[in-house]
Structures are given as C-alpha cells and as structure tokens.
Amino acid sequence: MLASLLVAAAVSLGYALCGVPNIELMTITIFVSGFLLGVGFGGLIGGLSAALYSMFNPMGAALPPLLAAQIVGFAVVGVFGGLVGPGVGRMRSRRMAVVCAAVLGFTLTLFYDLITNVGAFFVITGTREATDFLKFVIAGIMFMGVHILWNTGLFAVVLKPMLNVLSRYRGELF
Predict the structure, then answer these.
(1) Distance between CA atoms of 33 and 38, rounded to whole angstroms?
(2) Cα distances (angstroms) measured from residue 2 to each of 5, 74, 114, 138
(3) For 57, phi and psi rounded to 5 degrees?
(4) What pLDDT does 131 receive?
(5) Phi, psi (rounded to 5 degrees) for 148
(6) Structural domain boundaries enclosing 163
C-alpha cells in the first residue's frame, strides 16, 4: 500500500510542476522511495511512476522509445535510493552528506537525461547517425543543464534532512 502511495506522490509531484521545463520533484521522491522500501520496491516505484506520468501526461503520451527510457531512468533512481540512500542517511558529517547528495543528484539526473535523450532522439529524428545525436544533445543542452542544476541543488539542500526524518520509520517499513 505504501508503494502505491509513493507512486501517487511521485506522479502528483510530477504534474504539479509539469508546466515548468525540467524543474521537477519526481527524481527526489523516487530516490527517497527506494530509501524507504529498498532496492526492489525503489525500482518498481520509479518505473511505475514514470509509466503513469508519461502515459497520462496532459501534454501527450510519450512514444515507446522515450517511454522505455523514462521507465529505465526512474527505475535506476529508485534502485540507487535503496542502495546508496541508507549510507547518506547515516553520514555524521553534514558537509560530507551535502556533497554526496549533490553528487547523487547530479549523476542520477545526468544519467536520466542522457538515456531519455537517446529515446527522444529516435522518436523525433528517426535516424541513428552518431553525429546527428550529438547535434540533438547540443541543441537541448540548456534544458539538460537546468534539469541537472535543479536536481543537484535540490538533493544537496533537501535529501539529508529528509532522510534523517524518514530513517526513524525506515526499519518499520522495510
């Protein structure tokens, strides 16, 4: 039941900011879901959240290559929440936890953006030329940069305090 509520929270938070390009709260919500319920449920919550958000998006459903990339990208975020989240939650040094959280936000968002750029590239261009892909990524670098900066900052500021509060309940939920 909690996994369903976390999927609903991730999708709702996705829709809450869907009008602002590349500013979102789904990534951190899915990461925290993995922290709370472990690797398996984290991946499941990430994949289901991406699928529901993308298939019922008011701006239109994602086509299969992009949808698959979004599902894989968010599933990986949930898995990492289960794998790495507990370590960040146990860090005693606030400064080190902030740095680790920022690196996580940066790395996970970069991975997500790269994999979804591959999916979007096939949907939009229909070609498989590497030089065309490079042009495609360069054309969207500003949007990708905003997304990466947003999640890096969000993870740095919010993740450790959130994990501190939720760690009290993690044992009961896991």
Answers:
(1) 8
(2) 5, 18, 30, 40
(3) -70, 130
(4) 82
(5) -65, -45
(6) 2-173
Cβ-based neighbour number of residue 169 at 10 Å: 11
Structure pTM?
Answer: 0.94
User: What is the Cα 148 distance to its own chain's centre?
Assistant: 11
Give the DSSP letter of residue 63.
Answer: P
Q: How many CB atoms lie within 10 A of CB 164?
A: 14
Does residue 100 register a pLDDT over 90? yes
> Cβ(4)–Cβ(53) under 8 Å?
no
Helices then strands, each counted (H, E), the chain:
8, 0
For residue 174, what pLDDT is reported?
Answer: 63
CA distance 152 to 138: 20
Residue 17: strand, helix, or coil: coil
Contacts of 78 (CB under 8 A, 6+ apart): 30, 31, 33, 34, 39, 41, 42, 43, 44, 45, 46, 47
Q: What is the biggest distance separating any 2 CA atoms in the chain, rounded to whole angstroms?
A: 51
At residue 51, the 3 state secondary structure works out as helix
Place of tokens 């993870």: 155
| CATH number assigned to the domain comprising residue 125 | 1.10.1760.20
